[in-house]
Design a protein that fits this description.
The complex is a heterotrimer of chains A (256), B (279) and C (649). By secondary structure, chain A is an alpha+beta fold. Chain A has eight helices and seven strands. Classes of the chains: A alpha+beta (256), B mainly alpha (279), C alpha+beta (649).
Chain lengths: 256, 279, 649
């Protein structure tokens, strides 16, 4: 059988959005082959056996692609391993005797629902405000009608790889959502299909973003926390496109 | 029809959007636009800091050259405009940039503070009760809001000290910057203050100069790796130049021991002007 | 089948409502013959779409674009979390861009054959026809498909197909397609045509006078139980692979929506058709929560082997070449490591059961890249599979460049689901099922890269047409008000159920029972099934279910986010489904696709179909909790494809 380590789990418990929260400490014996969330599963099993309510945390695919999971682990969004979502983190990244502090992703735009679960719906509102290309079902021309340079397609993909987990907001000292927003704006601005709505999209998405989240001061923490390693370059593109959009949208609406 | 779940759980926006100002002022209403303004004014201010430092290197050529340099600044624009006109324009411009930089910084900081407030944590407390482990954020980037005010206060002190001569009293001779610098910096506490403040300035510029590229979207993957180096270079240059003045004054390299002209605001200045002329 | 204690309705032959005519023109002609709803009348119709994966999001978005008033429900926090997002490989379409002889007919033919002749020809042909539109649609939405240097779309061959018809976006095709459908959906949310209800789980389907008129949902945050009414209800709630507990499905995937519909009268078809994917990372502990799929493409270069001697405990590197058994290459010289999924899976089980398993728990087989690395070089392999190798290393802590991967089959996709006719309507009028939730297009086995195709075909291009035909007849009818007795009774039933879980006060967690159930299902209704095993399952499942209902411990309250409470209802439905799977597998006295009965195999150990007696769909009708379901059949006829025995020698 695999090696086992003993760790102390210091986990944030909070009953509801308006209840006070605090840390709870549990010793835990765990195989190093277990995933981090399986460690929490096991802890929950023990809590349930003892008649205590299990810790609420969210996860779904556990393959690092759905973006449902995500907690702060020892002060880092998604924990110590680079380019790895919480669900893909394994206990072999920890040492025997470690204390593991687990907190929810925090931001005013991400109110705590319960324990480690937070509400990330403002990210949906940002998409809703313009994170799409307006093409109704059936209205599309042949897919090969518009060639897209391979490099542009690849770079668009780098941005489109965003899983919407919110780690960028959680990691940002300012709780800014620039990396998330810029990834979607960048993805579409790089493709020919995204051009007609490029300027209105950029302006609308940034405006909604700023009603929920803080201002980017270029720390770069978001990129380090991002499980998909989305580049800070997209933030630069977003900043450039936003001010250009202010000018272009004016021109497009006939005001010069 | 029942209210949708989504509406019931709609997260309250941290701020509401105000009525749009006319173009192009509306750019300043957004945080991204405000960062543009910070970046553009930052370019002006860094440029000023750099030129100011380089100009001050005249101090190493002695009192006469320093006098001449100051005089040149006042006579910029030649005979076309009244004396000091261009200088005052520059001062106004700098003050304006400084005010905008400050206003944008304060309002953006406020915005970010509100965006990090969170249920379950006391308002104003740290974002994470369990602590943070920063990976990319540098000491410089995280202390912008401390180095900024330090620089602002230092600037006021610096103006009062060497432009307005508030506390040098009779020792302050308007028009003889060499003398004023040498006198002020020969005091150890003042020298230390200059060193500390310039360290803060360098830290601020180190993050700020890099940040300018990001905020303005000046981005080319081929050259991006140079941006950090450039920022460090500018910050380092300004730091070394500016630190040399207090340190070398304290070590005696900048001194008036071998000064030819008398120290006063009448024939002393005339003597400096003649010496500079004959140079 | 044991006769029930109460009289059962007579088994009937189901009408698929496939129109007559030559198959190539069927859909085109039918589109013309269907009733239309006038554009200005569309806003008078309300449609509920449950689930926001590929099928649900595309359906909700398209119906919204058409002008219907749509309510979309997801139990996730955001539509973008649906498990469609985890699909890796790609999406098939008969575009024939590579000019290698592909056509709608060939895709149709391959899909019917790959499904081992247990799918409905007309549906599959329609799927192949609209496949080309999906690629156009997704590209226009900004899905960043792989492109060649000329900037045109790239294709690859997938899962042993003889043409290159698979479009892909790195190893994240499902993610990109879902994000495309999600963005289309969010556009309609912004436009106000779709009302999005997140964190809302369907717990009942409501019928009035035999017609679906709405659903009952539980708000997962507040626990509030709410009725919603509509003219039609569309279920796009995915498959039931999590009945095995360990599967590649996401943690929350469940059968509840489909099962509650089944309990209200919708027929559940072919539950025993489940697909076991051969290349997953084997479990490392007893408390493992799920299994991770490694792309099938790995078999293009990896060689599968086990030690020749049973119980060989040596590390892979210490086993000399002569003591390795490359069993797929040995048994299938023509296809070798590239045999179809079901064949590869079954053979892995055979060697592991015979004691040749590798790894700490002896539960895997080696997938070895040493030969490929020696042949093509480390860098070439890293370019091809770098991401996958990194993922493997993250999960197992082992370096696949230096030691072989360990793989083992795992539950991956379920071909069975709610029975639907050609219009994707279940036998309950007004109730539709799309995507993996229905049974329709894959027969007994799904081909690689076809799941994404089917989900999007249903949502973008089939349901939006067929639903109008039915709704047109309802013009002028208002929805059943939510204070109607049918709704209040359903709400009371749901509240009653949640209360029951909380007051059971047993001793074991929901997960404990789910894990135990999964073991029974995996051992007996897994890759290879026997009559005795199925009978054992039929006695073990009800026993464990009784214990579950008696001894489950769900703590906390119903008026807050309570994950154990959510799971309790889902696991209860898995118990009922598992029992039906066993019965369906027992009744189907043949082997076909993912359903392999050891009693029915060729001399070479391949699946032996019985076309004379089982060329039909088995669709089960619910008769109440304590009465066995009734088995109805839909006869399958094959006029355009000749039935043959699959062989991969």
């Amino acid at each position: 059988m695999s090696d086992t380590i003993s760790v102390t789990v210091k986990v944030w418990r909070q009953n509801g959005p308006d209840s006070p929260g605090g840390f709870e400490t549990h010793p835990q014996q765990i195989s190093i082959d277990a995933s981090f969330l399986e460690m929490l599963d096991l802890l929950n099993e023990q809590l349930n056996d003892r008649g205590e309510e299990p810790i609420v945390f969210e996860s779904d695919c556990r393959e690092g692609i759905c973006g449902t999971c995500g907690v702060m682990i020892n002060g880092r969004a998604h924990g110590p391993q680079k380019a790895t979502a919480t669900c893909q983190l394994h206990m072999r990244e920890f040492a025997d005797g470690d204390e593991i502090v687990i907190e929810p992703f925090r931001a005013a735009g991400f109110p705590v629902i319960r324990d480690l679960a937070v509400d990330r719906s403002p990210l949906d509102h940002i998409i809703e405000s313009g994170g799409y290309i307006s093409v109704g079902s059936g209205a599309a021309p042949d897919a090969n009608l518009t060639p897209v340079p391979k490099d542009a397609a690849e770079q668009a993909f780098d941005a489109a790889a965003c899983i919407g987990c919110g780690a960028c907001v959680a990691a940002c000292p300012n709780s800014a959502a620039q990396l998330f927003t810029s990834a979607k704006v960048g993805h579409m601005a790089l493709l020919p299909q995204g051009q007609p709505e490029r300027w209105s999209r950029t302006e609308a998405m940034v405006d909604v973003m700023e009603t929920y989240f803080g201002s980017c001061t270029n720390h770069g923490e978001c990129h380090e926390a991002c499980p998909k390693e989305i580049s800070l370059d997209f933030i630069a593109y977003l900043n450039r496109d936003y001010v250009r959009a202010k000018v272009k949208n004016r021109a497009l609406s006939g005001q010069r | 029809m029942a209210q949708s779940t989504r509406e019931r759980y709609r997260v309250d926006p941290v701020r509401t959007r105000r009525r749009a100002w006319p173009f192009p002022l509306n750019i300043y209403q957004s945080a991204v636009g405000r960062k543009w303004v910070m970046a553009l004014t930052g370019i002006g201010l860094v440029g000023f800091a750099l030129i100011h430092m380089v100009g001050n290197l005249h101090v190493y050529e002695g009192p006469a050259r320093m006098y001449e340099y100051a005089e040149t600044l006042r006579t910029l624009g030649g005979g076309l405009v009244p004396k000091s006109f261009v200088l005052w324009l520059m001062r106004l411009g700098l003050t304006g940039m400084f005010a905008l930089h400050l206003h944008a910084a304060i309002t953006l900081k406020d915005m970010s503070r509100h965006s990090s407030d969170n249920a379950g944590l006391m308002s104003g407390a740290k974002k994470y009760a369990g602590g943070r482990d920063h990976i990319a954020a540098t000491y410089a980037s995280r202390t912008m809001r401390w180095t900024g005010p330090i620089i602002a206060l230092y600037l006021l002190f610096h103006l009062a000290d060497l432009t307005w001569g508030w506390w040098l009293g009779p020792d302050f001779i308007r028009g003889d910057p060499y003398h004023n610098v040498a006198t002020s910096l020969s005091s150890l506490p003042v020298a230390i203050l200059y060193v500390v403040a310039n360290a803060a300035l360098a830290l601020h510029i180190f993050h700020g100069a890099w940040s300018i590229f990001q905020s303005l979207g000046v981005n080319n993957p081929r050259y991006n790796h140079l941006r950090r180096g450039l920022a460090a270079g500018i910050a380092g240059l300004i730091l070394i130049g500016n630190l040399s003045f207090p340190i070398l004054t304290q070590t005696g390299l900048i001194s008036e021991d071998n000064r030819a002209c008398p120290i006063n605001d009448s024939d002393g200045l005339v003597c400096l002007a003649e010496e500079a002329e004959g140079h | 089948m044991e006769p029930g204690t109460t009289p059962q309705p007579n088994p009937t032959v189901l009408d698929s409502k496939v129109p007559d005519g030559p198959i190539a023109d069927l859909w085109e002609n039918h589109k013309f013959s269907m009733n239309l709803v006038n554009p200005s009348n569309k806003r008078k119709f309300e449609v509920i779409v449950v689930g926001t994966g590929l099928a649900g999001a595309s359906a909700a978005a398209t119906l919204g674009e058409l002008g219907y008033r749509v309510k979309a429900f997801t139990f996730h926090d955001s539509p973008r979390r649906a498990h469609s997002i985890a699909a890796q490989g790609g999406i098939n379409a008969a575009k024939n861009y590579p000019n290698d002889g592909d056509s709608v007919h060939r895709l149709f033919y391959d899909t019917v054959k790959g499904g081992d002749y247990r799918s409905r020809e007309a549906n599959v042909h329609r799927l192949a026809e609209v496949s080309v539109n999906i690629i156009d649609q997704a590209t226009a939405q900004g899905v960043p498909f792989a492109r060649d240097y000329g900037g045109l779309l790239d294709n690859r061959s997938f899962g042993g197909a003889q043409v290159s018809r698979t479009f892909y976006a790195r190893g994240q095709t499902g993610q990109q397609l879902l994000l495309g459908a999600y963005s289309a959906l969010m556009r309609q949310v912004a436009a106000g045509t779709v009302e999005l209800h997140n964190r809302s789980e369907l717990l009942d389907v409501v019928l009035k006078d035999g017609r679906a008129c709405g659903i009952v949902t539980r708000d997962l945050l507040s626990g509030e139980v709410t009725p919603h009414s509509a003219h039609a209800v569309v279920l796009a709630t995915g498959g039931y692979g999590n009945v095995y507990f360990l599967s590649t499905n996401a943690m929350m995937c469940n059968v509840t929506a489909a099962w509650r519909a089944h309990r209200r009268g919708a027929l559940f078809a072919n539950p025993c058709y489940t697909q076991i994917h051969p290349t997953c990372i084997p479990a490392s502990d007893d408390f493992q929560s799920k299994l991770t799929l490694m792309s099938e493409s790995l078999r293009n270069d990896g060689r599968i082997w086990v030690p020749s001697g049973a119980g060989d405990g040596r590390a892979a590197g210490d086993i000399p070449e002569g003591e390795r058994d490359y069993y797929l290459e040995r048994k299938y010289p023509a296809f070798g490591n590239l045999v179809p999924r079901d064949v590869a899976s079954r053979n892995a089980k055979t060697v592991v059961d015979a004691g040749h398993g590798v790894g700490p728990l002896n539960n895997g087989v080696f997938l070895d890249f040493a030969a490929a690395i020696e042949r093509d070089g480390h860098d070439a392999i890293a370019t091809r599979y770098g991401n996958l190798f990194d993922m493997y290393q993250r999960i197992t802590g082992e370096n696949p460049y230096t030691s072989p991967m360990r793989i083992y089959p795992a539950s991956h996709y379920t071909m069975g689901g709610l029975w639907v006719d050609y219009h994707l309507m279940t036998n309950v009028p007004g109730l539709y099922a799309v995507g993996e939730a229905n049974f329709s297009d894959h027969g007994a086995n799904r081909l690689g890269a076809s799941a994404l195709m089917q989900g999007l075909a249903d949502g973008y291009f089939v349901l939006p047409y067929t639903i109008g035909d039915d709704l047109a007849g309802l013009l002028g009818d208002s929805v059943v008000p939510t204070d109607d007795p049918v709704f209040t009774a359903a709400v009371a039933g749901v509240e009653d159920e949640t209360g029951r879980w909380l007051s059971t006060n047993g001793s074991r967690s929901v997960d404990h029972f789910h894990r135990e159930l999964g073991r029974i299902v995996w051992d007996n209704i897994g890759m290879a099934r026997t009559e005795s095993g199925l009978r054992k399952a039929l006695s073990d499942i009800p026993a464990l279910r009784d214990e579950f209902h008696r001894d489950v411990r769900v703590l906390g309250s119903a008026d807050t986010l309570n994950q154990s409470l959510e799971k309790a209802g889902r696991v209860a439905d898995f118990f009922d489904l598992a029992e039906l799977m066993a019965r369906d597998a027992l009744e189907r006295e043949e082997s076909c696709g993912g359903h392999f009965r050891e009693e029915h195999q060729t001399a070479e150990g391949e699946a032996q179909r019985d076309d004379d007696n089982f060329s039909h769909v088995a669709a089960w009708e619910w008769n109440g909790p304590d009465t066995p379901q009734t088995r109805h059949v839909e006869e399958l006829t094959f006029d355009n494809v000749a039935l043959s025995q699959r062989s991969y020698k």
